[in-house]
Amino acid sequence: MSDIPLYRPADVTTEARPARIVITSVILILTALLLLAPLAAVFAEALRDGLGASLAALNTPDAWAAIRLTLLISVIAVPLNAAIGLAAAWAIAKFDFRGKAILISLIDLPFSVSPVVAGLSLVLLFGSSGWFGAWLSAHDLRVVFAVPGILLATLFVTFPFVARELIPVMSEQGRSEEEAALTLGATGWYMFRTVTLPNVRWALLYGVLLCNARAMGEFGAVAVISGKIRGQTTTMPILIEMLYNEYLSVAAFSMAALLAALALLTLLLKSLMEWRHADLLAATRRH
Fold it and tell me: Does the domain at residues 50-285 carry the CATH identifier 1.20.120.740?
């Protein structure tokens, strides 16, 4: 027995320990310079004249209008894209049909098209001289330079996030659990609620968080289709640009700090939910 060599698992990496320390340190330094330093600079500039000046800059009609519009667009766009992305991922991962590759390519389309081009396309479709412009004018409907246009632009640019997080998870899980539930007499809706949805809830949550962050921070497509009408079609990112161009740096950075705080709050909620349900998350990953 003593002649049998003991099995020792190989190291994950073959680099020497000093090399790994140097690589890790470089990565941490670059992360701090590229992510933490700009974030700290935004908050520092916002508080340059004190907290009172920053709060006063946010307590204006234009600022409140931008905040309300940004939250309104996110509240509408994120649930819609979550539902559409969940349905698209379900169809792609659970069924075989003609045109599946085309559907996947269409889901990835917003990743390959510039947001500015997307906004311009919506203007060409729904503008006064666009394809549907005459019909909209005849029915006294307005899309371009109005909230519906901003919503359409946001839906387009945020469409892939939920579906792209769910498709790999659903494909890896396969169909066996759903088929077993149906065999035991479960209805389609009951099977979806008790089998499918619990298995993908963390991927769905992550996709929703990414979708929400992009919806609140989208600039290119919204800037084209909104017309930047102050107090009416200015979201928070657009108002930041307008204030900065007017040399109102404290107001611009205060709005940017608020937008960053909303993003950090989203990440905090995600971390709290993962910590609160750590056991369920670990069981799902093992499964």
Answer: no
